[in-house]
Design brief:
The structure is a homodimer. By secondary structure, the first copy, chain A, is mainly alpha-helical. Chain A has 14 helices and no strands. The first copy, chain A, binds a DNA duplex through helix 3.
Chain lengths: 232, 232
DNA sequence: GATCGATGCGTATGGGATACGCTTTTCAGC
DNA sequence: GCTGAAAAGCGTATCCCATACGCATCGATC
């Protein structure tokens, strides 16, 4: 099936129904996208080449282009496919807990698929998967009494924070020590006195640095709560 | 000058002094990096190719490799070079205002150099430029009475939010309308009822959606303030 | 069974990164 | 000044990648 519009909207939301005529396809967009995600998860996004992908699928390279307009579009579809189906959110009694679980789910997604971080920071059009996820949380938040427009702002805020905190390094252990490894050089300590002082102090409370996502998330929720309470 | 270690640490922090011997270089790493940044700013990161860059510099392609180990490393250097010199922060009387300006400065950087967003979400080692910026804010925060370790956590939190909010689309006008354009289709409205309800409501308070960075930043600062006050 | 329309895919093209090795240039030490 | 070590500059060749084009193939509809 050929895509007519070249915009992302057409790509993500366009009519994908097949006219009855013509040869039915063995390859499907879904298979292609799923395999590409598998490669990206296992070997990194830079290993997702049309050739490698076609080999895995047992097809010719150019066959892929019957189902996907190009490489860039494939990556966009890969991203949206990660959010196919509702997000796995535990039950909660307060909107604050819903947002807490939402934040953890979002960062969990990016930690499981680090290649998606890049896509998330550049996507321009919301796809059906992402729309489904957002719709789902908004439903939960609404049911717990959070006004609609505030709910959207809250979700966007938590989203932004989670996305920004999701740097690949965050996932690994001992990352902060590595991040600040340059301070081992005494000259660097003199060049960056405040930073050196701070990190020396902070290595005592190492926990904080390692868990800065949880720390920040709680702060974000505190801030949202304060704003929403003031509104009520 | 050839780089021995292939790690980012060596790249960013390694000894770059030149032994007296040998031909002095016309090209310098600084010139190369600066030109690459100029290309990325004007034409996008994907237009920064070794060939294009060499042409601009009036040199041969392979000459670049005498000063930079490879393309990936060049991009890392480009990123860090954006933070060469102290950040431009207005004077402020409270640590809250310092953090507010910090957040705006950081997102301003990413809005001015959208290609840097991708790098920021993947960088693993802090370079001298970034260290200088962080050291600078920490100095300001410390002078206004914020304890050192809390300052670092606060800066990291604001950083994460700014980075996550810095999607390229954020800069443009009318982006939220485009982002939700799929809701124009009545079928989508039925499929995503909560989202449809919310956005219909939200388009009344369009301001909020367009300025969600400012909104979120204030919430983050509220949350940090609450936590820090409770500590004191 | 003829036809139309879609699929599968081989080949060719143009670009990109970079390994290798040769040439050129400079300065340290004589 | 001369000489040679050391570093810079860079042309060539190689390999990988995305993708335009066109042809062969296949199935459902008529």
């Amino acid at each position: 099936m050929l895509l007519l519009g070249q915009g992302e909207y057409e790509l993500l939301w366009g009519d994908r129904s097949r006219p009855g005529r013509g040869r039915p396809s063995g390859l499907t967009r879904e298979r292609i996208v799923a395999e590409a995600v598998a490669i990206a998860d296992a070997e990194g996004l830079h290993k997702v080449s049309m050739k490698h992908l076609a080999d895995r699928l047992g097809s010719g390279v150019m066959s892929l282009y019957r189902h996907v307009p190009g490489k860039d579009e494939l990556v966009i579809l890969m991203y949206d496919s990660l959010m196919d189906g509702p997000p796995d959110l535990p039950d909660a009694d307060t909107w604050r807990d819903v947002l807490l679980h939402w934040g953890r789910t979002v960062i969990g997604l990016f930690r499981a698929h680090p290649w998606a971080i890049t896509v998330g920071t550049s996507a321009r059009t919301m796809g059906p998967g992402e729309a489904g996820w957002v719709d789902h949380v908004l439903g939960r938040l609404g049911a717990l009494g959070l006004p609609a427009d505030l709910g959207l702002m809250a979700v966007l805020t938590v989203d932004c924070f989670a996305l920004g905190a999701a740097r690949p390094e965050t996932g690994g252990a001992g990352s902060s020590a590595e991040f600040f490894s340059f301070l081992a050089d005494p000259a660097a300590g003199a060049r960056f006195p405040h930073l050196a002082a701070v990190t020396t102090a902070s290595f005592a409370s190492e926990q904080l640095l390692e868990d800065y996502f949880e720390f920040g998330l709680q702060r974000v929720l505190d801030g949202l709560e304060q704003y929403i309470d003031a509104r009520a």
